[in-house]
Amino acid sequence: MGGNVWEWCQDYYSESFYLNDATDSLNTTAGTDSKRVRRGGSWNYHSATLLTYARASDLENRGNNYFGFRIASNALGGIPIITAQPQDVSISSGETATLSVGVTDATRYQWYSGASGDTVSPVIGATDASMMISLTTTTSYCVNIAGSEDSTISDTATVTLSEGTSYNTWVLANPTLTDSSQEGDPDGDGIMTLLEFALGLNPMIFDSAPVLTFEGQACPDRLRSSLQSSPSSATGPLFSCRRCYRRSNRS
Could you say which of 62, 110, 159, 174 has the lowest number of CB atoms within 10 Å? Predict the structure, then answer.
């Protein structure tokens, strides 16, 4: 920026400093008179002083109404600062996960598949503060954030793919379900909807006969958690557990 007032610079003035191929360098060596550089011309100087390479010098303690400083700000932000790291999340097959990061002074984003600092595998199209993904295997991610002056990279966020289908996904796959609450019993067979899900049954078809028997095997996780969360005095079929669960008729 030229004109207005001469801009004081931190450099000490030297007639030969820039003759030595100096590029964006700072001259910290004071000359015999310790003068500082001023540049950019001012309102009361001729137009030649407005040239970008024009320099002049003066004693740093000299003041008047045509020497001064330029106040400037980065329009696009400077150094990005992460205010909220992306968080680990767990999803089931068929579900999507959303990862997001909170940042100040960011101009560009790029998500990567890998741990923090691993920028070998960019996620195509993932160039915003948040990213929505669906997976076939557990995967870690990080995001590189750039500002106008520097860049930074987030912590690692891992999206864990859980085994089996989630209850919510199962409900969506049964559009005729009239009661999607876990304690519901839309078919009136005495088996609450959560257990219908755990046993792989149709929640809209009445079940009165034994369905599944698990003998000598570890019980499926979703079955175990479902049975443990159900009342012990069920009004429908009874269940017992000896490292397995058995479904039987009403007694």
Answer: 62
